[in-house]
């Protein structure tokens, strides 16, 4: 029997919204998924700015940092460096079929839409698209320019799910954590992963 549930690729790019990605990682680890983590250079700056996490640029050290942070089992979290072309996510023969970029910068949206594959995040997304797996992007920018919108339309038409970091308020959030969980819950829904993070529409208290 496999030690973990099937691996999911979770990529952090340099958009604002590091808490969304961190919470998603925490929940996936708690649910016993193996998670392959990709982190762009800008994402490391954002992680420090928004969540006070100074993540090492060394993939082994970064793996240890995140594993400690989320009490992951050995091998459960694997961070791959941005030039690690020999990692499983770099090839269609080994890459997980599911990948989430959370948060996703306008720059990464553009690079993915163009098939740039210039760093491991972009290559991994390109692989998921070509293998017709499930790619979810969580873009955060405001306002969106026509460039952003055109890139997102192109990706959406290719079957990529565009899920902007735009939490609702109809569940009456009492904290930032509630807003973060709103987004993470919707991402888990799309990954077909059962959870109890939020009440479902129509199943909560009536107002
Ligand atoms: C603190 C911080 C916040 C940022 N927020 C955003 C953002 O919300 N959306 C965005 O598209 N770019 C944002 N950027 C700019 C991107 O990080 C930058 O365009 C970078 O080149 C993206 O590269 P990447 O996609 O490889 O991570 C932010 C940068 C920093 C340092």
Automatic annotation (TrEMBL):
Q: Which InterPro entries match?
A: Flavin_trans-like, Flavoprotein, UbiX-like
Reactions catalysed, semicolon-separated, are: dimethylallyl phosphate + FMNH2 = prenylated FMNH2 + phosphate
Q: Where does FMN bind?
A: 14-16, 40, 105-108, 140
- According to its UniProt record, the EC number is 2.5.1.129
Report the enzyme's class at the first EC level.
transferase
Gene Ontology molecular function: any one: flavin prenyltransferase activity
**Which keywords has UniProt assigned to this entry?**
Flavoprotein, FMN, Prenyltransferase, Transferase
The record, for Pfam families, names: Flavoprotein
Q: Does the keyword Transferase apply?
A: yes
Q: Which family does it belong to?
A: Belongs to the UbiX/PAD1 family.
User: Briefly, what is this protein's role?
Assistant: Flavin prenyltransferase that catalyzes the synthesis of the prenylated FMN cofactor (prenyl-FMN) for 4-hydroxy-3-polyprenylbenzoic acid decarboxylase UbiD. The prenyltransferase is metal-independent and links a dimethylallyl moiety from dimethylallyl monophosphate (DMAP) to the flavin N5 and C6 atoms of FMN.
| Protein name (database record) | Flavin prenyltransferase UbiX
Q: Which organism is it from?
A: Pseudoalteromonas holothuriae
Encoding gene per record? ubiX
């Amino acid at each position: 029997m496999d030690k973990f549930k099937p691996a999911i690729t979770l990529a952090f790019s340099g958009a604002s919204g590091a808490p969304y990605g961190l919470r998603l990682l925490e929940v996936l680890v708690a649910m016993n998924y193996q998670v392959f983590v990709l982190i762009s250079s800008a994402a490391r700056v954002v992680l420090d700015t928004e969540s006070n996490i100074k993540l090492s640029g060394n993939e082994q050290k970064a793996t240890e940092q995140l594993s400690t942070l989320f009490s992951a089992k050995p091998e459960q979290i694997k961070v791959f460096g941005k030039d690690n072309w020999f990692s499983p996510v770099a090839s269609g023969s080994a890459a997980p079929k599911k990948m989430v970029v959370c948060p996703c910068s306008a720059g990464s949206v553009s690079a993915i839409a163009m098939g740039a594959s210039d760093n491991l995040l972009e290559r991994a997304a390109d692989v998921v698209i070509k293998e017709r797996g499930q790619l979810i992007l969580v873009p955060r920018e405001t306002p969106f320019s026509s460039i952003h919108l055109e890139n997102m339309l192109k990706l959406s038409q290719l079957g990529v799910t565009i899920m902007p970091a735009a939490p609702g308020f109809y569940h009456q959030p009492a904290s930032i954590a509630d807003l973060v969980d709103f987004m993470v819950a919707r991402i888990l829904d799309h990954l077909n992963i059962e959870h109890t993070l939020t009440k479902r529409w129509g199943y909560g208290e009536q107002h």
